[in-house]
Amino acid sequence: MGVVFAVVFGLLCLAALLSLVRLLWGATSLDRIVALDVFVTLIVAATCVGMGMNRDGSNIALAAAFALLAFIGSVSAARLVEKKESHR
């Protein structure tokens, strides 16, 4: 079972690296917002995998709250950028 957790963490790290590349060199601000949202989602997923590996579910509410706040922030930022670009 430890091999599965190691493979999952490796894939999550690879996805986070690709997301950071997109965050730094995104073409538009919407690309960067989506990359940041994906990065936060990957952090939450890695936290959940870590909880599964340790067999400790005490931080599930914290992970859910963090994911919800990240989603609300991404939607708010996307709407703000959309309104800003529609005036051009």
UniProtKB/TrEMBL annotation:
Molecular function terms, GO-annotated: sodium:proton antiporter activity
Pfam families attached to this UniProt entry: MrpF_PhaF
UniProt similarity note: Belongs to the CPA3 antiporters (TC 2.A.63) subunit F family.
Chain segments annotated as coiled-coil in the UniProt record: none
Locations listed in the record: Cell membrane
Recorded topology in the membrane: Multi-pass membrane protein
One GO CC annotation: plasma membrane
Domain of life: Bacteria
InterPro entries: MrpF/PhaF-like
Protein name as annotated: Sodium:proton antiporter
Keywords, sorted A to Z: Cell membrane, Membrane, Transmembrane, Transmembrane helix, Transport
Chief location: membrane
